[in-house]
Amino acid sequence: MPLNDTGRAQSVGVAERLAESGEPWQAVYASPLSRAAETAEIIARALGLPEPELVPALAERAHGVLEGLDHAGRAAVEAQAATIEGLEPRSSVTERASEALLELAERHPGGNIVAVTHGGVIHALVLHLSGWTLPGPGFAIVNGSILLLRANAGALELAEPEALTGTTD
Known about the structure:
By secondary structure, this protein is an alpha/beta fold. The chain has helices at 5-20, 34-47, 71-80, 90-107, 119-129; strands at residues 27-30, 53-54, 113-116, 149-152, 155-158.
């Protein structure tokens, strides 16, 4: 399903915030899933960068039998199952996304890149990189969130944990 007008406006808002940061951006990368790819195209165009490169390791966490269910349906399945068939372990998400981001950072030594991914991937990275101290109660990854990471000595770190921002506009 493609982005709707709200999603496109949120993508433009992210591009504006990135442009206003004053940082020079070298490239845009994205999950190959349609909404992330379209978001990345909008951001790249707004920043005057080439078309984004699609990176499969940035795809959303696989949720197995939970995919397509609403909150109540997910809760019902989770309440009845010790394990969820097809649910990708958070550690796997963290590992594949971290490896991909480090590889991308190596392509742009000392530079800044934009990587467009999904809430489940961002959440897994925040938990892992903060040693499970973030996020706090009520925390949610909203559309348009920006997470600043730094590649340092072959490892990722949260550049500014307080800078995880988003908009619900």
